[in-house]
């Protein structure tokens, strides 16, 4: 395949970036998108040019590191996948592909396509945990019965890998799908009840402090989420916050 | 409680509450107006009641005006906050791939509705306030139908009204269900809310259009 890549290049967080164009050929349709970028970087290094920086780690859709906005969509044109699971067969020979970093005020660009998503970590630190007795009296998890439907919904919420596609796709750069998933995965389980009130209050306050936008229920986040996290988690978070605030 | 309204969710909750209040008002406004199609007497009776009842005039009307102002001011404020949060724009974005036009353009459909409201106030509400509380003109319980018909004699006004109602419909197609989601509607009710939302969002504006066109054609 022969492709034209329009890639966002930015030296560091202080400088202004711009779109630069690269022609690349001999791309196999069986390559993953990140392998295609590896080929481009090998070519750039051979030509004594600065390679394109981009985030990646597991390359199997688990870690949530890859974060590219490809041809106007987070993680590219396919649904329910991360960028590393996207293959070049989804594109046609001769295509022009726009590759941009995830955009949000709360996700500043570090370099080229790498963005700082530590805002998500700080939201997690604010309340995304449960207290467990680890002093030697740890209770067997199976000793506390959990309703099957709640367990399934909690598990679905817990599949969020925190990649930030929800923020990148949202016209308001809202992080509510992420925070909703993190609140839900604990609030649905008996183990998460002890900190339930302060968890939702602290996580929502931290989300607001980080400068994410408001949710206007467009549903773009749900569509682009590689793990299919449902909007229902946002509604549950809203209910949890009302419950906690009026307690 | 004291912090709830200052959170992003609290603001959305307040926005949703004002939206639901305005939708209830719109429904009662429609139910009164539709009577003008089949009975001038009933329309005059209901309009006279609404226009002279002290509870409606001095309690509900100020609450309604406050609700309208709050909804628009909060809408602009949230839009401003959201634009601040996005900061950078993509070179290429395909919004249509993951969301509806209505959901992405609530501010624009809202602005058209605002301009319509200004015209509507100039047409009906300001003259009504002037009639009752500025010039203190004698109350005629049968004047309402004639005033309504007179306004809809203009095809240009009817056209602008109908265009505004199309935008109102688009606004409601997203706004109705969105307001309930913002208030935490359980997923069990999602499909019911969606059906109710579509029924209301298409039915009410279409009904208002019908009233305007009916009076235009009836008096050609």
How is the topology of this model organized?
The complex is a heterodimer of chains A (about 250) and B (about 220).
Chain A: E1 3-9, E2 18-24, H1 33-46, E3 68-70, E4 73-74, E5 96-101, E6 109-111, E7 114-115, H2 118-127, H3 148-158, H4 165-169, H5 176-187, H6 196-209, H7 220-224, H8 232-245
Parallel strand pairs in A: 1-5
Antiparallel strand pairs in A: 1-2, 3-4, 3-5, 6-7
Chain B: H1 8-38, H2 40-52, H3 54-86, H4 101-104, H5 106-134, H6 143-151, H7 155-182, H8 190-218
Description:
With 247 residues, chain A is an alpha+beta fold. Chain A has helices at residues 33-46, 118-127, 148-158, 165-169, 176-187, 196-209, 220-224, 232-245, and strands at 3-9, 18-24, 68-70, 73-74, 96-101, 109-111, 114-115. Chain A has two domains: 3-111, Ubiquitin-like (UB roll); 118-245, Alpha-helical ferredoxin (Fumarate Reductase Iron-sulfur Protein, Chain B, domain 2), CATH 1.10.1060.10. In chain A, 34% of the residues lie in helices and 12% in strands. Chain A is elongated and about 60 Å long. Chain B has helices at residues 8-38, 40-52, 54-86, 101-104, 106-134, 143-151, 155-182, 190-218. Chain B has a single domain, classed as Fumarate reductase/succinate dehydrogenase, transmembrane subunit (3 helical TM bundles of succinate and fumarate reductases). By secondary structure, chain B is an all-alpha fold. In chain B, helix 1 packs across helix 2. The interface between A and B is large, with 49 and 43 residues.
């Amino acid at each position: 395949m022969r492709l034209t890549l329009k890639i966002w290049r930015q030296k560091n967080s202080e400088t202004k970036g711009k779109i630069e164009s690269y022609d690349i050929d001999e791309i196999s349709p069986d390559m993953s998108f990140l392998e295609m970028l590896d080929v481009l970087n090998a070519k750039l290094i051979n030509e004594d040019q600065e390679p394109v920086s981009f985030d990646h780690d597991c390359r199997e859709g688990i870690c949530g590191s890859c974060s590219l906005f490809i041809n106007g969509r987070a993680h590219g044109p396919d649904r329910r996948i991360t960028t590393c699971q996207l293959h070049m067969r989804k594109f046609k020979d001769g295509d022009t592909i726009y590759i941009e970093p995830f955009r949000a005020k709360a996700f500043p660009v570090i370099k080229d396509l790498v963005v700082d998503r530590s805002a998500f970590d700080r939201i997690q630190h604010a309340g995304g945990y449960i207290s467990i007795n680890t002093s030697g009296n740890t209770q067997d998890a199976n000793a506390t019965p959990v309703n099957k439907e709640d367990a399934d919904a909690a598990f679905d919420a817990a599949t969020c890998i925190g990649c930030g596609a929800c923020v990148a796709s949202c016209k308001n750069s809202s992080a509510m799908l992420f925070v909703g998933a993190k609140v839900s995965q604990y609030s649905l389980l008996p183990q998460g009840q002890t900190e339930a009130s302060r968890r939702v209050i602290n996580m929502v306050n931290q989300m607001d402090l980080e400068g994410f936008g408001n949710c206007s229920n467009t549903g773009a986040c749900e569509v682009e989420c590689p793990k299919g996290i449902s909007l229902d988690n946002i509604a549950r978070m809203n209910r949890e916050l009302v419950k906690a605030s009026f307690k | 409680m004291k912090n709830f309204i200052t959170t992003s969710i609290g603001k959305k909750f307040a926005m949703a509450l004002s939206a639901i209040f305005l939708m209830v008002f719109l429904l009662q406004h429609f139910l009164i107006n539709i009577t003008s199609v089949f009975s001038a007497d009933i329309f005059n009776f209901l309009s006279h009641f609404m226009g002279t009842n002290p509870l409606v005039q001095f309690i509900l009307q100020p609450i309604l005006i406050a609700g309208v102002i709050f909804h628009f001011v909060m809408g602009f404020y949230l839009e401003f906050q959201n634009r601040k949060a996005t900061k950078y724009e993509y070179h290429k974005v395909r919004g249509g791939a993951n969301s509806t036009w209505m959901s992405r353009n609530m501010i624009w459909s809202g602005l058209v509705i605002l301009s319509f409201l200004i015209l509507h106030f100039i047409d009906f509400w300001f003259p009504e306030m002037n009639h009752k509380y500025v010039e203190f003109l004698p109350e005629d319980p049968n004047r309402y139908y004639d005033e309504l018909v007179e306004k809809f004699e203009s095809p240009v006004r009817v056209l602008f009204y109908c265009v505004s109602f199309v935008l109102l419909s688009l606004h409601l197609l997203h706004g109705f269900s969105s307001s309930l989601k913002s208030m935490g509607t359980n997923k069990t009710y999602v499909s019911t809310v969606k059906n109710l939302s579509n029924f209301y969002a298409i039915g009410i504006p279409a009904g208002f259009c019908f009233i305007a066109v009916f009076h235009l054609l009836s008096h050609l």
